[in-house]
Amino acid sequence: MRTSPVLSLSRSLRLSLFLFAALLAACSSGCTNTNLVRVKPWERATLSDYTMNPGRDPLARSMAEHTFFSRETATGGRGVGGSGCGCN
Amino acid sequence: MSPRIKFLLALPVALALVTFARAEIKVGDPFPALAPAGVVAISGAALPATDGQVVLVDFWASWCAPCKASFPSLAKIHTDLAPRGLVLLAISIDEKPAAAAAFAKKLAPPFATLHDREQKLVKAVVVPTMPTSYLVDRTGKVRFVHDGFHGAATEKLLRSQIESLLAEKK
User: Does the predicted model carry a pTM greater than 0.90?
Assistant: First the structure.
């Protein structure tokens, strides 16, 4: 029977590897923190720009609405009034 | 133990230290120094002296609507309490210096407007939202933190907290 490569290492080396693995696991646990993938409050200049507003152009918005109406046979449902019931 | 193993052991420890070093500034923590972080006055003047003073540090940005709304209230607080020793520092975290300068010029507040050019300070402080203001006592410790600006309620609370800090002995 073949022995495991880890078991063939010296005791101090095995201990060192164990400690390293434990420390790496402890540090890597921060990678699951959802804060790491969020845009920070001071990085939101681009997001708050006027061009990021999808409703900034009334003409483009009405054209898009018309496309949705033509394709889906439904309109409204994007605010108060109207609905997407398909009864129009 | 071989140097290679020592390096592998030291690496996660260093990573952990870096993680802790970026922790959010909270009540009781000392507020970081401004000059080493590269903060400068938008006007080009020297940074106001803050040693031994009650300091209100407000982080703002030209693209932040609540920040704009907070300036008139901060101006009133400054006008009333600066003669009694309050130092109000409004620090822009704008990436574009021209945007910060244009905002400051347009609103022309009576307090000092500074610029965190490389966003070093805001990254060290880790503000939770925009705007955030930190009320720092005479010993340089953060005593109160205000997330966001909520109109008259924030102004009233700030005034009472500043009054209490100004009443503390030097």
Answer: no
For residues B81 and B159, the answer to whether their CB atoms sit within 8 Å is yes
What is the number of structural domains in chain B?
1
Asked if residue B93 is part of any domain, the answer here is yes
| Residue at B41 is within a domain | yes
B17 located within any domain: no
Mean pLDDT of B110-131: 96
Would residue B3 count as lying in a domain? no
What ipTM did this prediction achieve?
A: 0.78
Do residue B12 and residue A23 have CB atoms under 8 angstroms apart?
yes
Instruction: List the domain range (segments joined by +) for residue B45.
Output: 25-167
Task: Identify the pLDDT of residue B9.
Answer: 59
Kindly list the residues from chain A whose CB atom is less than 8 angstroms away from the CB atom of residue B119. 42
The C-alpha atoms of residue B140 and residue A70 are separated, in whole angstroms, by: 64
- What chain B residue is nearest to A31 in terms of C-alpha separation? B19
CB contact under 8 A, A42 and B127: yes
